Amino acid sequence: MSICPEDAILLAETRLVVREACTECGLCVAACPVGALSAPGTAAPAATEGRLGEHCDVVVVGAGPGGSTAAWQAARLGLSVLLLEKRQEIGSPVRCAEGVPHQSLVDFVEPDPAWISAIVDRAQIMALDSGRVVQHWEGAGGLGYVLERRVFDRMLAERAAQAGAQVRVKAPVVGFLHGYGTVCGLQVSWQGQITEVKASVVIAADGVESRVGDWAGLDTQLPLEDTMTCAQYLLSGVDWNPACLGYWIDEEIAPGGYAWVFPKGEGRANVGLGIQADLGRETALSYLTHFVEREPTLAQGSPVTLVAGNVPASLPCRELVGDGLMLVGDAARLVDPLTGGGIVNAMVSGRLAAQVAAEALEEGDTSAQGLAPYQHRVEGAMGRRLARDYRLRERFPPDRRATRTFLRIFAVATGGK
Ligand code: FAD
What we know:
The chain has helices at residues 27-31, 65-76, 102-105, 149-162, 212-215, 284-294, 296-299, 343-363, 368-395, 404-413; strands at residues 9-12, 15-18, 55-61, 81-84, 99-101, 116-129, 132-147, 166-168, 173-179, 182-190, 193-204, 227-236, 244-249, 258-265, 268-276, 302-312, 321-322, 325-327. The chain is α/β, with parallel strands linked by helices. Flavin-adenine dinucleotide (FAD) binds at residues 61-67, 84-87, 95-100, 172-173, 205-207, 211, 230, 232, 272, 309, 311, 329-331, 335, 340-343, 346.
């Protein structure tokens, strides 16, 4: 960074890295526009108090698709809403292959080229055994999109703001406030201070690594066998049909999971894989490296980003509500256990949470009992489908997935016709 005389600080993605050459001269401390750096042995500069300390009807934790949809819909229903995101940039870094079906998306927003990288209407699925293709399916898939989530997620947060929600970035929630045995707000690290935010309802949309539900005593544990560990490159310079999604099911390529190629237009593609966390002998990244090397069309591409992340492949959390609290999206484990798709489920659950919050506030009962309709409506909207796909995953253990029946099931789950 230009301010450092030793050239010891560099910007990696959105994080600062300090090299060993740093002499702790302190020049960067004075230059930091948000007062986030401090000289060794001194306290961080006093922070100014932001506008966080007010009471809101609803506080939403996490500005992913689930949280932003919840905040947007709650604000539309006339509630006072605060949306808190720990990262400094909503939607970044992207930890997602970004595929969504058209039919589910248009229930929320009209498709917009600003946040769509590719329109897809075909799929090909290959099942391999000891490196040999034993099953192959190729055909029309449901119409769908590969999103540009960096833009899509931000668009949803902007919708929330336009509807009247307060949105705050770089505002990690670090704890809970309890009053009379119920959740009544949150502790937020905001501009160098821990600030308290009071709220009648907390919507936890803090993703797969969710802490909020756990703080409230809900069982959000994710066993290893129900966790998919993923790694993904955005490859540039790939020769791949821009309208076709590709899937590889193979115990060697991705034990307990699958590999994918989702085109992003202009010779780019999200190329990644997920492995069942208890089955991998190596890291997901090692499996991904082998996969790309063995596929000539992919090996010619260059990785321009690398992301890693986990996907829940479990049943939804048994309890989705607590006193003053609802779990949404990945935080509630509302991800399809066969495909790993969770964007639309997060949005659907976010909308339901907002509706139930409005009704509960109207009734003056935000206890677990008052919020119980949320649990019923989520179960009605997706419970059976998620339970069925979880059972199918169990019925077809990894060594039984290179079969015709499983291929057909997988094709239907991923939108194939
Ligand atoms: P997230 O999108 O994870 O958002 C949670 C937000 O909460 C984040 O912004 C996070 O920074 C914030 N947060 C966390 N803790 C705090 C805190 N303490 N305070 C404040 N903010 C906090 N799904 C699909 O539908 N299609 C796909 O193609 C697809 N591919 C995937 C590929 C990979 C490699 C992975 C890992 C996942 C994929 N998924 C896919 C799943 C999808 O990304 C998730 O299901 C979806 O993002 C869930 O949305 P969410 O809003 O629940 O959580």
